[in-house]
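Can anyone check this?
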Amino acid sequence: MLPMNEVPPTQTSALASSRGIVDSLRHMFRVIAASRVNYWLAYATDFACAAAFGYLGMRAGGAWYVAFAGLSSGAFAFSFVEYVLHRWAFHSGSLLSGELHASHHHHPRQPSALPFWSSAVSAPAFFWLLTQFMSAHVAHFALCGFFAAYLSYGVLHHLQHSIRIKDIPFRWLRRKWAAHAVHHGRADVNFGVMTSLWDRVFGTYRAVAQR
């Protein structure tokens, strides 16, 4: 009989094999996330999701204000999802997403994105969920707005790390650049890239010093 604190050899082998598989998957995820091809394919996938839902919504017809309400609510919902994920998933020390985002903070100009198929895989699940309490027509436009906002977020974030703030012609846009720069200097504030609304609601907004 084995001592109570001793693990049987077969169980030890199984645990080691499981850890090996998990480590391999984590490594593969890191490689994909840092791939330049994945980075640009992610933009294409997000655009395709927004365009597909927009097309399906328009094909069904309906009043313009229904479409506008769906698009607006989807974009608004994304702004909240962006804040939640950025604050509690991307800045979590225990999650792989936190590790990858920490790499972005250290090397902000390097490509870093979730696997490009993430949007395409999650889109049907989101659609099914929404149709449990709204019509498919409204759900199409809501998801169009959601993925369009996601695409806009990606483009804006890319430009914030590609164009110098002094080259931005609009003051309101320069404030977004500056607010994001504050976040990179102090990672517990200014989580919103698209809007500062949720930072203000949850008390994580830090104003940019005026010059």
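Reply from J.R.: I decoded it. The chain has a mean pLDDT of 89.
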